[in-house]
């Protein structure tokens, strides 16, 4: 299973997500083609309501601790509540979480 798929599944299974994006940014770094070492995640969940950004990041890091210890060199984390996401992106409806097409 790819690193990206594991990230999608773990975050999808452990957070009540309204929106999930996992973007492999490895191609923009000095790594071999096809690498999975640099990622950006965008997460929207009401679980983040009332949490400071550092607590949100700790939550994500805990869920992905195995991948961070073994596979991921860099992880950019962007977390939002539904209200924060709407304020940033308008009133368009959120897409459901993607779990790798399974």
Structural description of this entry:
There is one protein chain. With 102 residues, this protein is α+β, with helices and mostly antiparallel strands. The chain has one domain: BolA-like (GMP Synthetase, Chain A, domain 3, 2-Layer Sandwich). The protein contains four helices and three strands. It has helices at residues 3-14, 53-63, 65-70, 82-89, and strands spanning 17-24, 38-45, 74-80. The chain has a three-stranded mixed sheet with strand order 1-2-3. The longest helix is centred in the N-terminal third of the chain and has 12 residues, at 3-14. The radius of gyration is 14 Å and the shape is globular.
* Number of E-type strands: 3
Please give the CATH architecture. Answer: 2-Layer Sandwich
- How large is the share of residues in beta strands? 15-25%
Instruction: Give the full name of the CATH homologous superfamily.
Output: BolA-like
Q: Low-confidence segments, ≥5 residues, pLDDT <50?
A: none
Helix content: 25-40%
> Could you please say which CATH topology applies here?
GMP Synthetase, Chain A, domain 3
């Amino acid at each position: 299973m790819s690193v990206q798929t594991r990230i999608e599944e773990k975050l999808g299974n452990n957070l009540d997500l309204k929106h999930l994006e996992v973007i492999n940014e490895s191609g923009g770094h000095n790594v071999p083609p096809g690498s999975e070492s640099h990622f950006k995640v965008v997460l929207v969940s009401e679980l983040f309501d009332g949490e400071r950004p550092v607590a949100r990041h700790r939550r994500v890091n805990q869920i992905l601790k195995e991948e961070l210890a073994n596979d991921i060199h860099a992880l950019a984390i962007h977390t939002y509540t539904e209200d924060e996401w709407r304020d940033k992106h308008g009133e368009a409806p959120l897409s459901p979480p993607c779990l790798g097409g399974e």
